[in-house]
Amino acid sequence: MNGPPRGTFAVLTPPGSGAIAVVGISGDADLLLRRGLLDATRLSPNEIGLRDFAGEDVVVVRTAAETFEAHCHGGVAAVGRLRAALTRGGLREVDPWEFADVGFDRIWRRALAGASTASVAGALIAQRVAWSDFFTRLIEAPAGEAVGRIDAVFARSAEGRSLVSRARVVLCGRPNVGKSSLLNALAGFGRAIVSDRPGTTRDVVEVEAAFGGRPVTLCDTAGLRTSGDVVEAEGVRRTQTAVDEADLRLVVLDRSRAVTETDEEVFERAASAGPSIVVFNKIDLPGDSTGPAIFRSRAEIYEVSAITGEALQDLAAAVGRSCGIGDRPAEAVPFAAELESFLADLRVLVGSGEDPRGQINRFFPAADGVAAQPGRSG
């Protein structure tokens, strides 16, 4: 596979103010250093380093002998300074598609361009090195061991998808327990309709936010109850579907009132569907306070006020712990369907006893060079 044209650069991420911008650079490392552009001479292929680049502190990845990537703040000004410096240094700006390789790099750059938080971007940057290590060890492994290595990566597919997808957090409960007010408070603005009239929310209302570095979609739902109203009954049906499909469920109860049979039913349904947190809202109001004891041994519980904001920070932290990306995965994880497809084809090739080196190097051309480095055996 041919690399990008020598002496060129391209901004590989869309314009705007995203978390991270990636600038691809093609040229001799010593020449770049002499022109005062980029000190990357001490970086080996697929090694990451922090460098001063045109007055910006950037993360630099040496993706091949003469190809580099500078990862900087995604703001227009920071990217503009890098582009101006490279142009003054004699490099020619080209279209991203002229610069970018196909195969892994294309998949990875597309995922990185879509990263909406710095944590996700950082995890994806680390994934490039993780996949380089994986392919290097796969090339060196005996056939039987190679199949096991591929299967181990396949087993982490859900973890990979979590890097690039939004977690769905559904707020559910009987009518008028304050679900919409709680969603507004967690999201930071008035997105849902708030009313004292039970049944106000008749559809699933979605708001985008981030917790624990993970992009999250908060879903406000219709109150779960039996209703003769056809429209409201449809809203309840959609709520039940949302509860079943969520990554996390916040079961909202009114702490100023006694726990009802409906509250119990909502909790049981949510808990049976997957990870759930019980949230007692309206602690700013006087009334019954025995509810939390009923669920204490069955679920993680938080007592909050969507109106005053009391304890909301603790609840947000809990959502982050449940949905956040946590520690960046040190091993390669399939963060795109194309990676899973490539692994499936590769497994067939390896399982038949054929040498995977050619197919791997066409997909990830740096792998062969990394395998040749001392101290990188599998």
Characteristics:
378 residues, alpha/beta, six-stranded mixed sheet, 12 strands
Strand order of the largest sheet: 3-4-5-2-1-6
SSE succession: EEHEEEHEHHHHHEHEEHEHEHEHHHH
Q: How much strand?
A: 15-25%
Q: How far apart are the first and last residues' alpha carbons, in Å?
A: 25 Å
Structural class: alpha/beta
Helical segment count: 15
Mean pLDDT: 82
**Main sheet: strands, sense, barrel:** 6 strands, mixed
Q: State the total count of DSSP E strands.
A: 12
What's the helical proportion of residues?
40-55%
Question: In one word, what is the shape?
Answer: elongated
- Flag low-confidence runs: 190-202, 368-378
Helix-strand layout with pairing:
Elements: E1 8-11, E2 18-26, H1 29-34, E3 48-53, E4 56-64, E5 67-74, H2 76-88, E6 92-93, H3 96-99, H4 104-113, H5 118-140, H6 143-154, H7 157-164, E7 167-172, H8 179-187, E8 205-211, E9 214-220, H9 230-245, E10 248-254, H10 261-273, E11 276-281, H11 291-295, E12 300-303, H12 312-323, H13 337-351, H14 357-363, H15 366-371
Parallel strand pairs: 1-6, 7-9, 7-10, 10-11, 11-12
Antiparallel strand pairs: 1-2, 2-5, 3-4, 4-5, 8-9
